[in-house]
């Protein structure tokens, strides 16, 4: 057996690398196992998020939004551009540079925090041992007082649409197109599908999205979802609900997608590229030896309690491999919690205050309960809403679509949820997260001074609106 550690982390994504750094900060002897490699065979840290997920997709979303804004929005603001073109090669180069800077930064943070990086694929054995297989197939075994599993997830593949010839791709392949396709098909109109579809739609592709569910963004507050749906439709995204893909075929350099619509009729579209974005599945295959003792659920997720402890003492799992939303920031918070608990601190993650974001334009962001959830639960509530169309800063930015909605308990006034669709929703939602983390009431936000003119004033107005007291919009008359 090789060297023993206080903590071995398997996986260096946002959950794993954060856990490893925190363990180093706590003075623990820690190692992080990661098998990802670059074209030269060198180890690459950061996992899916930094390499082929959150970061590269946001780079392309930001670039494509600037292009679309310059093409269609600048003239209204008095800016005229004679020629505008897309340089896909440079766009991808910029994306890759950003990824390289961030992944390289993790290596530096590991060094400064005393984290040992082990290159290879980790497997949990019995007695809290970790077997690591390197790129040449050599195996080494390490002992650990504690093991943190942070192996993340991968795109789900579906039988009707297998990856093929660079024409049918998953979310990773959709970040590597070398030209703007004339037509793009997307299976799945969830978060990932919408973001990727938006990128190529803005750059000039005709985008058709096929979604099996009969409700657009079913888990999102529907007032917000409906606003977003209108915006996407106006942008040219063709989102078709209640469509179940049954077959795909590549011929004559085109992808033919056959699907069944909501009426049971067989339909077909053709496209130059097809993106499959129907969700993700946990990376737990071959992760455990048969005698490791760690339990998985029926979907392959590692079974854990509220503190991310598995059924085996000293073995933890965090992020996409456990229950809850597959979000990078959720994984990071779980990583911090687990290490702090190992160090003896009674910390926890408040799962009621995990923000969700869709980085389209307009952005969607939410935290807490939706109106639909509260209705189903029979919980008394009240709602305050304020449109960005009445916000001066949004007008100045030519970004007036959307609204802020704050939902509070009818009797206690405690904020139960905040939902935003509009400019900078991903930043604005943090105000709702902080308010809810501290158990704030809508009145607390209503009595808070917000800078003028800012987009955040819409949060202030929505909080005032919970009790019908918004200033910059007409309220329903209060009963005397």
Automatic annotation (TrEMBL):
GO terms for cellular component: cytoplasm. PROSITE patterns: PYRIDINE_REDOX_1. It catalyses: N(6)-[(R)-dihydrolipoyl]-L-lysyl-[protein] + NAD(+) = N(6)-[(R)-lipoyl]-L-lysyl-[protein] + NADH + H(+). Residues 354-463 form the Pyridine nucleotide-disulphide oxidoreductase dimerisation domain. One of its GO terms (molecular function) is flavin adenine dinucleotide binding. The active site is at 452 (proton acceptor). Keywords: Cytoplasm, Disulfide bond, FAD, Flavoprotein, NAD, Nucleotide-binding, Oxidoreductase, Redox-active center. Disulfide bonds join 49-54. NAD(+) binds at residues 188-195, 211, 279. The active site is a redox-active disulfide bond. This is Dihydrolipoyl dehydrogenase. It comes from Halovibrio salipaludis.
